[in-house]
């Protein structure tokens, strides 16, 4: 988050000017011509303090411990399942809610409740509709193209910003269609024009494994040995079960329980590494919900309603994110447009990540561009 100029820094910046003035006075008293130092650049003005105590550190500095982000997308997770299973059936999800900031009433992209469009939104911070600066990915299969082709121009992602800023990145995904993202930002990544040239490939490690348990084991192994500045994890178990047996049915709830077990293993890995726990922020959401046989109807509440949870150092424990953020509005049961105050959306992942890592916004992004989504105490 942006760093504020403190009163102390302003006073320190005035020291050379004061010393120069004293030198002028002394020289004048001795009859010598005064030596005038070049004027220093004035620091930004600071409002007068109303107290003599040291300046209070802004709440924006609450993200200072955060140096790494793990973003988790649970494919097809209807937040109602978390409530149905309760703390005993989904202890890891409920731990995130108890120890972190959360909402079970976030929104997908307004135009789509399908996998590729919403994951593209999470990574780019854009809506779908390319005619309104969206990413243009309105299809749901890897058709051999790129996000850039869908939009008609290069589309930057959170991978670009972290990588070009000198950080390391990784993507762990459980569906083969996620090769679409590897092609987009590795094969056809843009030149790095920020600082040192770190190359065009924006995702340092890409692991695609349709066995979710094996995939999470690989993630846990990396968290133990070389955690990245930004890691994106995709788990597909609820979506797989929903398409085979129906969303919110017994098989689906069993898949959410299994997902909770995998999530619990990730939290245990973090717990077991004190240095990692001190600096890693976990952001969890979903690409869509689902009810019955499908999740295709974008205007259906059960499809567009998704969870959004944030857990890590300094996060406001147990707080509802809509209640914590007056700049956002709870959508109730509606599907808000992109004008006016926004609900928290899964597309906020991109700029929440750049914000807490003190990096620039994702170029061309729309969601949380003011970076007012606040998750800390």
Task: Lay out the secondary structure.
Layout: H1 7-29, E1 68-74, H2 79-89, H3 91-99, E2 101-107, H4 115-124, H5 147-151, H6 158-164, E3 169-173, H7 179-187, E4 205-208, H8 212-225, E5 230-235, H9 237-245, H10 250-271, H11 274-279, E6 280-285, H12 301-304, E7 305-311, H13 321-324, H14 349-356
Parallel strand pairs: 1-5, 1-6, 3-4, 3-5
Antiparallel strand pairs: 2-7, 6-7
Helix pairs in contact: 2-3, 2-10, 8-10, 9-10
Structure, described:
The structure is a single chain. The protein has 377 residues and is α/β, with parallel strands linked by helices. The protein has two domains: 7-57, no CATH class; 62-356, 3-Layer(aba) Sandwich (Alkaline Phosphatase, subunit A). It has 14 helices and seven strands. A seven-stranded mixed beta sheet has the order 2-7-6-1-5-3-4, with helices on both faces. Strand 3, helix 7 (179-187) and strand 4 (205-208) form a beta-alpha-beta unit. Helix 8 packs parallel to helix 10 and helix 9 (237-245) runs antiparallel to helix 10 (250-271). The longest helix is centred in the first third of the chain and has 23 residues, at 7-29. The chain is globular and about 50 Å long. The model is unreliable at 1-60 (pLDDT under 50).
* SS class: alpha/beta
What order do the strands of the largest sheet run in, or round the barrel if closed?
Answer: 2-7-6-1-5-3-4
Content of β-strand? 5-15%
Main pleated sheet: 7 strands, mixed
Known CATH architecture of the largest domain: 3-Layer(aba) Sandwich
CATH class of the largest domain: Alpha Beta
Helical content class: 25-40%
Number of domains: 2
Poorly predicted ranges: 1-60
> What is the typical, i.e. mean, pLDDT?
88
Q: Find the CATH topology of the largest domain.
A: Alkaline Phosphatase, subunit A
Can you say what the CATH homologous superfamily of the largest domain is? Alkaline Phosphatase, subunit A
Order of helices and strands: HEHHEHHHEHEHEHHHEHEHH
* Alpha plus pi helix count: 14
Number of strands: 7
Termini separation comes to 14 Å
């Amino acid at each position: 988050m942006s760093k504020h100029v403190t009163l102390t820094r302003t006073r320190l910046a005035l020291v050379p000017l004061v010393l120069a003035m004293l030198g002028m006075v002394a020289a004048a008293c001795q009859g010598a011509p005064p030596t005038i130092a070049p004027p220093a650049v004035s620091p930004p003005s600071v409002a007068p303090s109303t107290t003599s105590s040291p300046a209070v550190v802004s709440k924006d500095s609450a993200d200072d411990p955060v140096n790494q982000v793990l973003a988790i997308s649970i494919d097809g997770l209807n937040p109602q399942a978390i409530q149905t299973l309760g703390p005993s059936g989904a202890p890891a999800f409920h731990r995130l809610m108890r120890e972190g900031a959360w909402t079970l009433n976030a929104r997908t992209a307004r135009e789509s409740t399908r996998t590729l469009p919403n994951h593209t939104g999470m990574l780019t911070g854009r809506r779908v509709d390319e005619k309104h600066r969206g990413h243009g990915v309105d299809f749901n299969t890897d058709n051999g193209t790129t996000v850039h082709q869908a939009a008609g121009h290069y589309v930057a992602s959170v991978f670009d910003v972290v990588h070009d800023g000198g950080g390391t990145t990784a993507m762990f995904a459980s569906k083969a269609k996620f090769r679409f993202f590897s092609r987009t930002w590795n094969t056809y990544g843009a030149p790095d024009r920020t600082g040192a040239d770190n190359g065009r490939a924006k995702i340092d490690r890409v692991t695609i494994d349709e066995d979710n348990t094996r995939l999470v084991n690989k993630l846990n192994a990396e968290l133990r040995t070389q955690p990245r500045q930004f890691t994106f994890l995709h788990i597909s178990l609820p979506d797989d079960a929903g398409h085979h047996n129906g969303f919110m049915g017994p098989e689906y709830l069993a898949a959410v329980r299994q997902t909770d077990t995998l999530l619990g293993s990730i939290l245990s890995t973090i717990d077991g590494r004190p240095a990692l726990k001190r600096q890693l922020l976990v952001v969890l959401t979903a690409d869509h919900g689902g009810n019955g046989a499908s999740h295709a109807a974008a205007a259906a509440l059960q499809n567009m309603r998704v969870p959004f949870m944030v857990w890590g150092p300094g996060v406001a424990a147990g707080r509802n994110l809509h209640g914590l953020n007056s700049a956002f509005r709870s959508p109730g049961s509606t599907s808000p447009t992109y004008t006016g105050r926004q609900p928290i959306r899964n597309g906020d992942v991109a700029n929440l990540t750049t914000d807490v890592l003190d990096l620039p916004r994702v170029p061309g992004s729309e969601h949380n561009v003011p970076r007012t989504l606040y998750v800390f105490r």
